[in-house]
Amino acid sequence: MSTGPVGVAIVGAGVISKQYLSTLSGFPDIRLLAVADLDPSRALAAARAYDVPVSGDLATALAVPEVELVVNLTVPAAHGQVATAALRAGKHVYGEKPITLTPNEAEKLLAEASERDLLVGNAPDTFLGAGIQSALRAVQAGHIGTPVAASTVMQSLGPESWHPDPAFLYQQGAGPLFDIGPYYLTALVALFGGVTRVGATATRARLERTVGSGPKAGQTFPVTVPTHVCALLEFASGATANSTFSFDSALPRIQFEITGTEGTLAVPDPNTFGGPLRVRANGAGDWSELPVTGRTDGRGLGVLDMARAIRGTGPHRASGSLALHVLQTMTAVDESAARGEFTGPAGRIVPPAPLPADWDPTAATLAHGAS
Predict the structure, then answer these.
(1) How far apart, in whole angstroms, are the C-alpha atoms of residue 161 and residue 211?
(2) I need a labelling partner for 356 at 20 to 30 A (CA). Which of 25, 190, 201, 206 fits?
(3) How is residue 86 annotated by DSSP?
(4) Residues 60-104: pLDDT tens digits?
């Protein structure tokens, strides 16, 4: 087994790459070695901004011998192709969500990784942040008794008001379900275990949308996916959840509440890494604040956790198998809405292990040849 910090290449220098580059550059167990993009000038600009030595196209990044882990930040339609190329170059892969466009493609990807003795990890890693980890500890500590149900809502008018190139967010592999749903579903699986059955409805409010900012402002683009989805989820633990994902609401709302036999827990936004966390016990007149402890570093915690797993120093939490289960669940939601009947994800999953209270991504645990 190799030792020392894990060499990383970023593939895709779009909007989200800045968050990853900023976070990962502060982790001593990570060595940022390359940035790749279809636009070489964009890759070069990102590499220079974060003192990354190599920039260019995908082939350039994969050719760097010291790169062990590729962080795939391309658009959803390219996730499978880029991940497969990285595996065939002998690299581990961590990707943005969803892992691929279809469960079948994801299953093939994980099978190839297994054959090559490589790991696949995937976003979101927000469930590793202080907010969701503190909620998990609160549930395990019995603050609300036995969890019975969850209610989650994410609604807004969509990302086109601020995103400079939002068209891909309204195509296959995106929309509110596939773009925002993974944050909620991953957190729910961490809290309740795997999903066993789903029922859903879905609608599409408009056939076209308009870019609201940046150089493409005023341009219209087609909408090919549902933009308002309501799902009912049943988990292996017996708990249930009703979840709404919408890009059609003038009233923005973020809600994540868990009802238990002894009270209700108000969970932080799962698309963030922090708090607050509140509990209301049965019979109490108001909410009480619970401590929120853990990491709030940002996107890239899952990459660091995976790097340490590559070195054999811990479990692999933001795993490809977890991402596959979330993708299977979202696909089942889509199918249920289309058919008008309950259906179930094809696979089962063991929820990821919680983080130790003293887990520190800024510690140099691999720098001295630890294995």
Answers:
(1) 7
(2) 25
(3) H
(4) 999 999 999 999 999 999 999 999 999 999 999 999 999 999 999
